Amino acid sequence: MSDTTKPSDVVRTERLGRVLVVTVDHPPVNALSAAVRAGLIAAIDAAEADAGTAAVLIVGAGRSFIAGADIREFGKTPLPPSLPEVCRRIEDCAKPVVAALHGPALGGGLEIALAAHYRLALPGAKLGLPEVQIGLIPGSGGTQRTPRLIGVAAAIELMLSGRHIGPDEALRLGLIDRIGAAGDARAQGLAYAEELLAAGAPVRRSRDAQGLADRDAQRAALEAARAETARKSRGLFSPLKIVEAVEAALDRPFDEGMRLERELFLQCIDSPQRQGLIHAFFAEREVAKVPEARAAQPRPVASAGVVGGGTMGAGIAVAMLDAGLPVTMVERDEASLARGRANVEKVYDGLVAKGRMTPDAKAAVMARFTGATSYEAFGAVDLVVEAVFEDMAVKKAVFAELDRVCKPGAVLATNTSYLDIDEIAASVSRPGDVLGLHFFSPANIMKLLEIVVPACVSADVVATGFALAKTLRKVPVRAGVCDGFIGNRVLAVYRQAADHLMEDGASPYQIDEALREFGFAMGPFQVSDLAGGDIGWATRKRRAATRDPRARYVQIADRLCERGWFGQKTGRGWYLYPEGSRAGRPDPEVLAIVEAERARAGVTPRSFTNEEIVRRYMAAMINEGANVVHQRIALRPLDVDVVFLSGYGFPRHRGGPMKYADMTGLPQLLADIREFAKEDPLFWQPSPLLVDLVERGADFASLNQSA
Ligand code: NAI
Prior knowledge:
Layout: H1 7-10, E1 11-16, E2 19-24, H2 34-49, E3 55-60, H3 83-92, E4 97-101, E5 104-106, H4 108-115, E6 118-121, E7 126-128, H5 142-150, H6 152-161, H7 167-173, E8 178-179, H8 185-198, H9 215-232, H10 238-251, H11 254-270, H12 272-286, H13 291-295, E9 304-307, H14 311-322, E10 327-330, H15 334-353, H16 359-366, E11 369-372, E12 383-386, H17 392-405, E13 411-414, H18 421-426, E14 434-439, E15 448-453, H19 459-471, E16 475-480, H20 487-504, H21 508-518, H22 524-531, H23 533-544, H24 556-562, E17 575-576, E18 585-586, H25 588-601, H26 610-630, H27 637-647, H28 657-664, H29 666-677, H30 688-696
Parallel strand pairs: 2-3, 3-4, 4-6, 5-7, 6-8, 9-10, 9-12, 10-11, 12-13, 13-14, 15-16
Antiparallel strand pairs: 1-2, 14-15, 17-18
1,4-dihydronicotinamide adenine dinucleotide is lined by residues 307-313, 330-332, 336, 340, 387-390, 394, 398, 415-417, 439-441.
């Protein structure tokens, strides 16, 4: 454990000529544990005390400079010395300090580098201040030194995006002084330090840098950033704190700015948003820990096939091409294949038009794409994803072909949204190779990939799904077979809650507004307009036969669909989209239909506050999430959280529905559900898991360890 490590174990010093080389060696990523922090201070003290040392070089051992804070310290009170103290000690050093960066130099790692006097970065180095992603601000001088080095606009952009930049951009911005050659950071750092000494280069502190000298321009940049952040950050806490800290860099002496940075940092630490964001951060790493991935090695996937070139097939092909795989697409005839290929090319043409891809790069990607109308083209591929019409007979026919042509050991995956994958698997001679890979639209953009595990699948096929997700840079979540798996199954329930609210008296526009206030980018009716109302309509028709006749069924959406109002693509849905506009306008005719339907259903409308709307909507989502865990469709509550965070626009700072439930309290949630059940006991049946947790005084988090 880091707490018991001695500083000298993790920070080595060695004098080479006049340069004291300080090597941070704390595998795997040189995180800034208490021992590393103490070791750095001791190293600077030693450098100053040693008359033979004229300069200091800080480097990282292994594959990174310093990847950031020590995540094992998250949520605990850190031991001294603090990171701001370490940075100050480095900056105060009376002898020039050089940092040579390779690999990740992120968060606190970059703040250490910014406290050094000269910076060199090797190709492949990744520099960034990603604290905003876990609800924080850089807390060790990052907000004060960065703008002094690179100006307000670039500093704020770096900190608000949390993105990583490479050495070229870092040099252009002025964050580093020099780019090294590929190779050894230590050797190049040493050469740079020697060169600086030979030139008589002085100690040069970032806190004295002149990046803010042009005050009027900097002030204007700050005001522009503040306005944009207020508009874009949708209730997030830490982005505006970053702007505030940078304002202090502009207006106040360095020490005062540092004090304010600390104050704002502590406010962020205390914010519930940080709890949610940290949960999201860890949950996204935990989801890949599933029994099959532990039990088996993935099969190699060096080439892939896609059946169908529609919305999903083309998107999946792009995701695979983007990951460097060769892709073969099979469509049912030449005309459909031409459309499928065009759907793929359209994505790259868009990038070329925006200047984000060169025509040559597009040609190179498309050279890895092959189209065919015969399944024989799949003879050599390692994995196929089927994305044809959502129809069991069509899917089975496709799988019969795959069974016939694919080589032994090829993974046969379906992208079905709802169909029974056990039934598909049972229809082929190799059910152990059949898996669900449920992508989300647009498949080349959306991060979520549900890995649906039928009863007979072999463990190594599931492990292959997880490995593929990594190749495609998706967030994989293991799901069991049921109607809708995790995401769409839970969605179906809270969508009904939204429909009930609408029929009971809330307008679709108020419901959308309430959920935007909660933090969703869009409300459910806006989402429906974007996805196309016909999709939900088809699902409702399919389910009509099996629907409990006693269940409440709101027909308002059907009335819109019967008029052909499917949303953006038809110019109107719940909202009006005049002349192809994407921002919808409330539609009085929709409100009239809603009223007529209320009358038809004999409902006397009442009013709801936005808070009441959120309460019902979330209760429906969490209760069904609990059912999904209870029935082992999801392994753990955190899997449900990740599905909603990465596939359904759930606000990240709330951590996902199950984390949100824990934070607001399960007893209150259960009481709400029992209250709602007085009106509609069939819809509002408390999940047995929720009841059990409340009886035991436990929470969803207590189930997150038990995968
Ligand atoms: P789509 O209608 O856009 O595309 C289907 C394509 O499959 C068409 O190009 C059609 O020509 C082709 N096709 C049909 N039968 C074929 C056959 N026997 N052989 C080869 N190609 C054939 O449909 P979409 O939206 O791409 O959906 C495909 C699948 O993905 C469905 O199972 C759907 O439930 C699922 N899905 C859809 C999502 C969405 O948002 N659209 C999201 C996630 C899954």
